[in-house]
Design goal:
The complex is a heterodimer of chains A (250) and B (289). With 250 residues, chain A is an alpha/beta fold. In chain A, 37% of the residues lie in helices and 27% in strands. Classes of the chains: A alpha/beta (250), B mainly alpha (289). The structure holds adenosine-5'-diphosphate and magnesium ion (MG). The site of adenosine-5'-diphosphate has 11 residues of chain A, from strand 2 and helix 1. Chain B: It holds the Pfam family BPD_transp_1.
Chain lengths: 250, 289
Amino acid sequence: MVELRGVHKSFGSLHVLRGVDLDVGRGEVLVVLGPSGSGKSTLLRTINHLEKVDRGTVRVDGELLGYRRSGDRLYELREREILRRRTQIGFVFQNFNLFPHLTVRQNITEAPVHAQRRPRAEADALAVRLLERVGLADKADAYPGTLSGGQRQRVAIARALALEPKVLLFDEPTSALDPELVGEVLSVMKDLAGGGTTMIVVTHEIGFAREVADTVAFMDAGRVLELGPPAQVLDDPAHERTRAFLTKVL
Amino acid sequence: MTLPRIESAPARHDEGPAPKVVPARHLLRWPAALGVLILLAMAANALVTNPAWEWDVVGAYLFAPSVVRSVLLTLELTALGIVLGFALGTVLALMRLSPNPLLSSAAFGYVWLFRSLPLILQLLFWYNLALLYPRLSFGIPFGPGFFDIGTMDLVSPLAAATLGLALHQAAYAAEIVRGGLLSVDPGQREAAAALGIPRARRFFRIILPQAMRSIVPNAGNEIIGLVKGTSVVYIMALPELFYQVQVIYNRNGRVMALLLVAAIWYLILTTVLSIAQHYVERHYGRGRA
Ligand SMILES: Nc1ncnc2c1ncn2[C@@H]1O[C@H](COP(=O)(O)OP(=O)(O)O)[C@@H](O)[C@H]1O
Ligand SMILES: [Mg+2]
């Protein structure tokens, strides 16, 4: 479903991604671990073309995201086409990034109506279903500012799901939450994983990785240092760096 | 080097009922209030009893048709100046924030130029443009022209005043809008882009309404400033409020009374605008505590 080949990305002289290869199959959950600054956020952002890659390819469901291939060249697509392909990918941010001046319902229906051109009534019905799914059916008309952090992140997940994306990306979805609110967000994510959603999750929640991940990747300094089933990467890492990191976060 | 030791006073735990709170007394508050009241009474007395103010003349001219017409022109100039100024200012702000160095330095140059020139100078400049370029033609620079028009036909006094006010206002509006756009969390732009929302919608539905929270108070200042600022167009003999009262007092010699007429109208206009601003701010503040 998601396929990265030899992805490189630099910011000026800072070489942030140094040749990343990854494969995530349909319905699989990949958890990405790694120290701060290792390039995890940048990796997620290249997948939906918020960040352009310098070298390498990113495919989602077989489609190159920001480019069209012709012969041995990649031509960057026009904004319209990139936006269309982006709607196949949901993104959940660490800081929620809900639109504070819109109600919960408006936050959720904005993209289905204005990016995917679905009828308003259909989008409203979808919002109701999604809010039920994340346990916030009574908050449709609330403004994000009146919700707790955990509730906001669940709305953000509903908003990402409203695109009915082929894959969901999570960038440290629980890192900005008070400890007692982490559980409610993780449990929504577990439900999604159980329901067969393809997910790539950057997180420091080792328990979640162990329980939900099909594959765990450990990133360090722009490379995927270790990749495998949770039992192998978490309990019997091959690299010293992985071991050092795990002792710190556990 | 040694750090000073912090001595903490030993805590005392007095037993007994909770003590009563005695607010600090402000001994000067009452004499000060009394002084202000006396000054206000003196001012009111001077305004009402001195016949030089000629309140009957004020009353006679306050709603005179020529005065009301001039108030409408003042409003028209203000509205045109603000609407056109902020429209152009928004474009300039976007140019200034664009990664294209040509666009951003053009916007920078514009703001620099129009903030540097006194408004009155600029107005006279547009007014006299006809002398400088009797005909305006549009076409390829140094090449053939597409059409050609007499400058006097295009730049009437009203058009010159509107143009001058709008161009002047745009320079200030550009900075206000730019500040507002920068005050919006970059995560908002990113989230909107990640959702695949088209660019224009992203700007008008997501970013601008949030920027309005910081734009509106500053824009309110500008609008109220412009209501009074329109009075400089009197030099172009446009019958806005200030010009009109001058015309009248030059005819009848009732200077003070007519200045009061103008003052009362300016007060009414700015009061109405301040109230409107309050409601606009409340609108854009929705969703926040
Ligand atoms: N837009 C950017 N411009 C410049 N440097 C950036 C940018 N985004 C990220 N970086 C840098 O790239 C490195 C990796 O960042 P990031 O992908 O956010 O790491 P992580 O999410 O693993 O903490 C960091 O050193 C960060 O400062
Ligand atoms: Mg990060």
